[in-house]
Amino acid sequence: MTLQDEEVRSRLDLKIFLDVQADERIVRRLKRNLDRGMPFEDIARFYLDSVRHRHHEFVEPSRWHADIVLNGVSFPRVVWSWCWNGYATTRLRSNRERWVTVATMDK
Most exposed of 10, 30, 55, 71 (fewest Cβ within 10 Å)? Predict the structure, then answer.
């Protein structure tokens, strides 16, 4: 949701959007929340009542502000390496007042 804010976007050097399919997002959410001890019924209810709608309202439109849209399911290691070891660290060292971020669809 970082890319929704114009002030934040204006300070970013590179804006990356990870496009993760709905079924992959729900599986990740289920695994994470079940591991935390939440009942399946609570997870499903919250997803269906809130998360799904908020995704369409806030997350999906932010893709249009990204410089790069990547497939979040088969996100290659080389891209992570490039983001964190190459571009991001160079930018952070050379220009401290600028922000570098990766916008994800699910955490």
Answer: 10
Place 83 in a pLDDT band, splitting at 50, 70 and 90.
low
Q: Which structural domain range is residue 65 located in? A: 2-103
Show the tokens assigned to 90.
């160079």
- Strand ranges (DSSP E) for the chain? 12-19, 68-71, 99-103
Name the β-bridge partners of 102: 16
Residues 20, 21, 22, 27: what is their CA dihedral angle, to the nearest 10 degrees? Answer: -70
What's the pLDDT tens digit per position in 56-79? Answer: 888 888 889 988 887 776 656 666
Cβ neighbours of residue 41 under 8 Å, at least 6 residues apart?
none
Q: Domain total for the chain?
A: 1
Exposure of 67 by Cβ count < 10 A (0-12 exposed, 13-18 middle, 19+ buried)?
exposed
Question: Distance between CA 38 and CA 32 in Å, rounded?
Answer: 9
